[in-house]
Design goal:
It contains 16 helices and 23 strands. It is α/β, with parallel strands linked by helices and about 575 residues long. The strands form 6 sheets. Strands 3-4-5-9-10-11-12-15 form an 8-stranded parallel β-barrel. The chain has a 5-stranded antiparallel β-sheet with strand order 16-17-18-23-20. Strands 6-8-7 form a 3-stranded antiparallel β-sheet, with no helix packed on it. It is globular and about 80 Å long. About 55% of the residues are buried. The N terminus is likely disordered. It binds alpha-D-glucopyranose (GLC). The site of alpha-D-glucopyranose (GLC) has 10 residues, from loops.
Length: about 575
């Protein structure tokens, strides 16, 4: 493949210039500078006209993802499932739901992704299974059999009373009565998703074998779904318990020994000090990456408040992480924009700003897409991404957000943000050539103004959001300090202006100053850079037009900057070479 060759995806899609990358990089630390992309398989691209996205469809769009600048895709669960929780209700851990294709299709996708330099991370749902899983069927029908203890059973529904309910819209208790066994079973999510019993060593062995099974296929990593809830104990919240960490550490040890280089990403929706624990310690490492849940809602909050203080605060409360770890950052994903990790006051503010209609809410969060959340404002979308790409961590994009895709709050639950990808203006927006509308996995977005958005048009328009975001990704790729550099928050005389530096600690590594004006007003600010007094500034990235700054940091270590409304700047800082 060369940089100028063209590749063609599904019919009707304009050719995307193939990425110049070939093969995977040798860098074992690839995840530090990587941009991740969550590709919701069933809604991404349908190759066989059954209305459901599949592996062959995803494979046919890899050139697009490579062109965009994606380094790794995260593929949510594709295992056989009754599909009562978007596939997070698994009924066979080592199978592939035939709607998504065959094992060969899966392997083909991994191979083709790797050929384009794209890594593949798959979802591992270890906390629970579907009640249709044979383990649960055996557990409920044969309490003294080999699977009798695979789940958490109790004669009463009063145990672990200190544990919160997560899916408050649908569940009133974490216990559900099972007629067949004549006992209650424990579940942190839907009542059709019984939690596995991690106090049973046979469960730990069984799931470790599942992880081994998929690691053998050559995937590059696992997203560990709902990881804080593995173990429960009386008198606690049953979250983040030592027993849970022990299981994660054991999995990490197995991967390190048998599949070195395979990464894990924790979905631990917890406060900063608790999330950090999922990195483990240098002696007992746990995950390679953890999604930084607490910072995400603060990015949204800052844009409405016109102050970056809440971002500053949450980062100040975020402890340092061990050297093997890296944050994962995101703006949106396939779930609701969770407001579990904010205060009650913040939640009320966020609902007021971002979910004025009741239908926009789900559980403790907001079931909306990025572009509509930000009022389809190009400036806000770019600023939010500039923050995402410069704060500590590796960013993860959500499919469709790069073209400003819309939402459908008339669909149930989180399906509001899981509608088919809009590729072009052909039938079913190029997602599928299924004959009937009803055959689509979910209906396409139909709201005027949103229904027409598509990749082909965005590709053809050099001024599109898609091209602008690709430009941001390209700049990030050119500055590894943004991925692997140290992070330091800088004093700013304006609450609206967030200023931080990222410093590549390798010899000759660069120092970048990242500035963001989260307010709707133009802002002047003086930034404290005492250790960089006299450094010259060079513009690496700036937007929207018209942002300006001094050419050098003053001898007093201060830099004056002016930022247009919602403006952002990334500046390189170089200290003058000292005369010897
Ligand atoms: C995770 C998934 C979510 C799912 C839940 C229960 O939070 O991201 O989609 O509903 O686990 O499986």
């Amino acid at each position: 493949m060369s940089g100028t060759s063209l590749s063609v995806g599904l019919p009707g899609v304009p050719a995307v210039p193939a990425a110049p990358r070939t093969g995977l990089s040798e860098d074992p630390q690839w995840f530090r500078t990587a941009v991740f992309y969550e590709a919701l398989l069933r809604s991404f691209a349908d190759s066989d006209s059954d209305g459901v996205g599949d592996f062959a469809g995803l494979t046919s769009r890899l050139d697009y993802l490579a062109w965009l600048g994606v380094d790794a895709i995260w593929v949510p669960p594709f295992y056989p499932s009754p599909m009562r929780d978007g596939g997070y209700d698994i009924s066979d851990y080592t199978g592939i739901d035939p709607r998504y294709g065959t094992v060969e299709d899966f392997e083909g996708m991994v191979r083709e992704a790797h050929a384009r330099g794209i890594r593949v991370v798959i979802d591992m749902v270890l906390n629970h299974t579907s009640d249709a899983h044979p383990w649960f069927q055996a557990s409920r029908s044969d309490p003294s059999g080999p699977y009798g203890d695979f789940y958490v059973w109790s004669d009463s529904d009063e145990a672990y009373a200190g544990t919160r309910v997560i899916f408050v819209d649908t569940e009133s208790s974490n216990w559900t009565w099972d007629e067949q066994r004549g006992q209650f079973f424990w579940h942190r999510f839907f009542s059709h998703q019984p939690d596995l019993n991690y106090d049973n060593p046979a469960v730990v062995e069984a799931v470790t074998d599942v992880v081994r099974f998929w690691a053998r296929t050559g995937v590059d990593g696992f997203r560990l779904d709902a990881i804080p809830y593995l173990v429960e104990r009386e008198g606690t919240s049953s979250e983040n318990l030592p027993g849970t960490h022990a299981v994660v550490a054991r999995l990490a040890a197995v991967l390190a020994e048998e599949f070195p280089g395979t990464i894990t990403i924790a979905e631990a929706n917890q406060m900063p000090s608790e999330v950090v624990a999922y990195f483990g310690t240098p002696e007992a490492p746990e995950c390679t990456m953890c999604f930084h849940f607490p910072v995400m809602p603060r990015i949204f909050r800052s844009l409405r408040e016109g102050s970056a203080d809440s971002i500053r605060q949450v980062l100040a409360e975020t402890p340092d992480i061990p050297a093997h770890g890296q944050w994962g950052t995101f703006l949106r994903n396939h779930d609701e924009l969770t407001l579990e990790m904010v205060t009650e006051d913040e939640r009320a503010l966020m609902y007021g700003w971002y979910a004025p209609e009741e239908r926009m809410r789900a559980n403790v969060g907001i079931r909306r897409r990025l572009a509509p959340l930000l009022g389809d404002s190009r400036d806000e979308l770019m600023l939010a991404h500039a923050l995402l790409l410069s704060l500590p961590g590796s960013p993860c994009l959500y499919y469709g957000d790069e073209i400003g895709m819309g939402e459908d709050i008339w669909l149930e639950d989180r399906d509001a943000v899981r509608t088919p990808m809009q590729w072009d203006r052909s039938r079913h927006m190029g997602f599928s050539s299924a004959p009937q509308d009803a055959a689509l996995t979910l209906p396409l977005i139909s709201a005027p103004g949103w229904a027409e958005r598509n990749v082909a048009d965005a590709l053809a328009d050099p001024g599109s959001l898609l091209h602008a975001l690709r430009g941001l990704l390209t700049v990030r790729r050119q500055h590894p300090a943004l991925g692997r550099g140290s992070f330091l928050m800088r004093a700013s005389s304006s609450a609206a202006v967030l200023a931080h530096t990222r410093q590549d600690l390798s010899p000759d590594g660069e120092v970048l100053l990242c500035l963001a004006n989260v307010s709707e007003e133009a802002c002047e600010a003086v930034i404290g850079l005492e250790d960089l007094a006299g450094a010259r500034t060079g513009v690496v990235l700036g937007g929207p037009e018209g942002s300006g700054e001094d050419a050098a940091v003053g001898e007093d270590g201060r830099l004056g900057v002016t930022l247009v409304p919602r403006g952002y700047r990334w500046l390189s800082l170089s200290l003058p070479v000292k005369e010897s």
